[in-house]
Amino acid sequence: MENIFNCNLVELQKIKNRAGNLSVVENSNSIPFDIARVYYIYDVPGGSDRGGHAHKDLEQYVIAVSGAFDIQLDDGKNKKTVRLDRPFLALHIKKGIWRETRNFTSGAICMVIASHKYDYQDYIHDYEDFLKFRRNE
Ligand code: TYD
User: Fold this and answer.
1) Residue nearest to atom 1 of ligand 1 (CA)
2) Which domains, ranges and CATH numbers included, belong to the chain?
3) Given the CA of residue 37, which atom of ligand 1 is nearest to it?
4) pLDDT tens digits for 10-46?
5) How far from the centroid of its chain's Cα atoms is residue 125's Cα?
6) Ligand 1 center to residue 18 CA distance, Å?
């Protein structure tokens, strides 16, 4: 059973040169699961909250490729909030963790690298169902 203390920030390789920086996430190298999907969230209106769900099996790396936002993680017992504000840091959200994303700066881009393709059945949208899922796991 995963808990929020296992969801850590991972420092990605940063290749610097005069013309800027490049960070890379590569299967079998900088990520502990195989990449099945990448999506990104942008044009988030100031003050909006996103997330508010958990995944039964999906794992993710979440990266603020531009700007910043907060992610609150909750394992049913403990909560912690992580501010993502550097393009070379990935937050590893393990399976079975409730997350809420808040306080996007204007123009922020949230890139998510995911272990599975999109599957509606993998979502838990209701917080009481999430607590039941955690108790039964
Ligand atoms: P959702 O995962 O709920 O986004 P957030 O947690 O950031 O609020 O997804 C929002 C909508 O986009 C929802 O209708 C499902 C759809 N969606 C896809 O069709 N494919 C995807 O890969 C993802 C992540 C979402």
Assistant:
1) 51
2) 4-136 (2.60.120.10)
3) 22
4) 999 999 999 999 999 999 999 999 999 999 999 999 8
5) 16
6) 37
